[in-house]
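Q: A reviewer asked whether we had any structural model of the full assembly, not just the individual parts. We don't, so I'm hoping you can provide one. Inputs are below.
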Amino acid sequence: MRLDRRLLLTSALFTLTLGSAVLAQTRPRIVRVKARRWAFTPNTIALRKGEPVTLEVITEDVFMGLNIPDFGVRGDIVPGKTQLMTFTPDKAGTFTFLCDVFCGDGHETMSGTLVVT
Amino acid sequence: MPIDRRNFLKLAALGGGAVFASRLAGAANAPYDDFYFVQLSDTHWGFNGPKVNPDAQGTLPKAIAAVNALPEKPDFIVFTGDLTHTTDNPLERRKRMGEFRDIVSKLDVKEVRFMPGEHDASLDNGKAFTEFFGPTHYTFDHKGVHFIALDNVSDPAARIGEEQLAWLKSDLDSQPKDARIVVLTHRPLFDLAPQWDWATRDGQAAVDLLMPFRNVTVFYGHIHQEHHKTTGHIAHHSAKSLIFPLPAPMSQPKREPVLWDAEHPYRGLGFREVEAEDAGTKYSINELPVRG
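A: Here is a predicted structure for the entire assembly that you could use as a starting point for your response.
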């Protein structure tokens, strides 16, 4: 009876440890991105295929948008708020992200690159 | 003796213009007269960038002189947006719009229609544009064809918006399914290259409303080059710019203006004649260059 209880506790501990490991593995990596007219910092972001990522995006001046058309991801970037954009790159390559809210003279050059390996 | 427009287009094509014919499915039965209009686009008055256009102040006047020299006057002219180059300064924006309006007042035609581009309207939701040129979306009818000017730029997020879509639906509800419809807009209504911001966020909603109509053609600007695409039975034709050309969609990593070629000045710039034929179910497009 005592042996069974020990086995049960060991088994529960193993399950908990394994669960935490799995959770740690799937927790998105955080990448902080700052937007200001007319640039993103950083403007090149390295990601891994299959690894979840959360972009934490803020704007330092005006209302903007961040759009990654190749992954169907976009969000409004509102002054004073942090926009969280979570996704998992499912393909490798080089992809454009851009501001898709017209924000002035340099808007058309406001873009960056995701490099997914 | 009146000039036969079809023969004229053939001659113009032989003389250097490019003719693109777009035939729409189905024939409409309402009364109809052949006519043609001229589309000018993306003039970006106020732009300053000698490496891409050292004649930024002279290109628009040259285009206007070329339109005025056409052997037959168009029924009307439409500017499909980005009349002016953007500026943060509201006073400067209005100065550019005033100058643009003065320059194009030299066009020798009865009717000129204006539409905004994002450079004109996105920083103030179309306020200055409306002061100078009137509503940003509207309809008009011409010789049996129903024209719809759609605004996909006054919202800086490139949306037509629920209110305007409801207005579009209401307008279309009054049209028979075989109506000849021409949509004028600035951005492409389909996802041409969202990576280069060549799209309208809710453009598909407008296309969905137009789909039940058999005869629909869209003329737009924004991408600074001639481009032809069909979604379902709807043809979409973009126009050249009158300030600088842009590269073909996704043909290079960045969307950057094509640099001025001193060996071939004004190359890639131009305007077009659009001739409605065959009861408004066929449009012949004749691309015309700007010359120094």
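A: Points you may want to mention in the reply: Confidence is low (pLDDT under 50) at residues 10-17, 23-29 of chain B. The first strand of chain B starts at residue 18 and ends at 23.
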